[in-house]
Amino acid sequence: MADDTDTLNSLVSSTATSLLALIGVEGDPLQSREHILLSSLFLHCWRLGQDLAMEALIGHIVNPPFAKVGVFPLDTFFPQAERLTLAMRLNNIVASPTFAAWTAGEPLDIQRLLYTEEGAPRTAIFSLAHLSETERMFFVTMLLNRFIGWMRHQPGTGSLKALLYMDEIFGYFPPVAAPPSKKPMLLLLKQARAYGIGIILATQNPVDLDYKGLANIGTWFVGRLQTSQDQDRVVDGIAGASNGTLDGAKVRKMLSALKGRQFVLHSAHQDEPLLFETRWVMSYLKGPMSLADVKKLMEGTKRPPALAQAPESAVAPPGTPAASVATPGRQPVVSQAIEQRYHLQNVVSEEICFAPWLTGRASVRFYNSARNIDMVRPVSLRYLLDEQYRQPDWRAAEELAYALDDCRTAAPENSLFFPLPPVFFEQKDCKALAKAFGDYLYQNSRLELYRVKSEGFESSPGETLADFKVRFHDALRGQKDAAVEKLRQKYQVREAALVDKLNRALARLDREKADVESKAADTLVSFGAAVVGAFFGRKTFSSSTIGRAASGVRSAGRVVRAKDDVRRVEEEVAMLRRELESLAVEIERQAGELAAEFTAERYAIETFAITPRRSDIFDVRIVLLWEMVV
Fold first, then answer.
1. I want to staple 45 with a disulfide (CB 3.0 to 4.6 A). Which of 50, 369, 386, 456 is the partner?
2. Which sequence spans correspond to the domains of the chain?
3. What whole-number distance in Å separates Cα of residue 597 and Cα of residue 373?
């Protein structure tokens, strides 16, 4: 997304607007100092690759990491006292007990919301009924922005991959106003289909939708509309989406004549709108779910809230000197060739006490030209220096949760230190330790990858098994869609030929039946007139009477032959219908075979690894790390 400046600016702007709306500040992107400051902070941290939590954002508002905004000095553009007021308003939100709910529960990770840990798809439902208007807008904007961020990491595809459905879009996508949710929604309507993502929006207020967004909607389902204004807006939107090729008067006439359970379907893939009727359905019309309903539905699936606790790195782990008989004292003196760093915690303490850790940091390169893999993985491990220490066993080490370069190079005055193990004082430098750490990384570093060997399908570096399964399923779905399209084209010609023959046979059957009825009528008239003439007004058969009777007999023969023709055509029609049914059965059978062929369960996923060369371990660094213990 960093290369897509327009998208990045849109996400930053909408995030700043929604955050300001949460504290009741009207944030105009061009005029509001609050909006410009927040946007500048977001962009600054984005470019540096820094995460920006609310606590850090509040701190940056008071003391921004830049001196100018535009060409003006920071304090001229936005004085510190006014920045402090803005920070206080945001701090009130964070400190509010109601805000605690926003920091608990499932993380807003779109990949995790759409797929299980095994890579199976699932549905995520967000209920907003219990939120205030500003909270709803804040959440919807945040969700749409996260969805766009996830979407940008997906490969382009013509197959449907996911659906974003929003029930009642009213207020989030208006024609004139510009709420923070409008930009990301418009972006999704324009670009989501290229990533295989469908957007479904439902509303009872078509007049209150943005016309630019309506023009990007490819499929419409329109029911009964109460006012002509609603009908005009829908007709204008459909006409705009069809580039003026649709007859607006015809659509308006169809909409005006709709009855209950009737809908007009307009699709970009069809030349004409289609009128269809739904079946009767049972609906309890319960209305929005209450918090009690949500709680009941989530029983057995919702994770229990975690107990509040101090940061993990702020608590002395089992086995640290804090838990042993050793007592802290003055800082041990070690060789000047050994680099030392000091890590402080954001914890108020009357005295500062440090525990020693041996920390190893290095860069590990994984290279494979055949797979076009060339990546460098930074590794930072720490190993506790307790009384039992003889030499570091890096297999028992743990990852360092923060950057070494962010740690201090000097300890605060009057700090206390737990003692180092005696053997450590034998170290004159860290060369031997660095070599041992490099050897450990060379022997144990592996870039784990996944593959479906039969398909030549492999994971990318850093891709989890669940993400790999999702990507493989998407690839299978694309192959299946292509195979189904090929199957459709294969049988389309045969089906069209059979349908054409059937239509011609049915037309011929209609003509033959009409011919039989006509000939039968002529026969009855001719033969009947002769018989009736013989009984009424005549004593004997005359030559004309006999002629008419003979003509009737010949007509009867033609009727018999015509009926034979009808039977032959009926047999032809029946045969063509059987062929069509057989073709449908054959298509269904082959479609079933395709579905079975492209089922993900048929393909085994295996793990393989890429290992580094000796020269791929570089920038090895050993540091004596003193970490504050609470």
1. 50
2. 1-101, 313-446+614-628, 491-597
3. 31
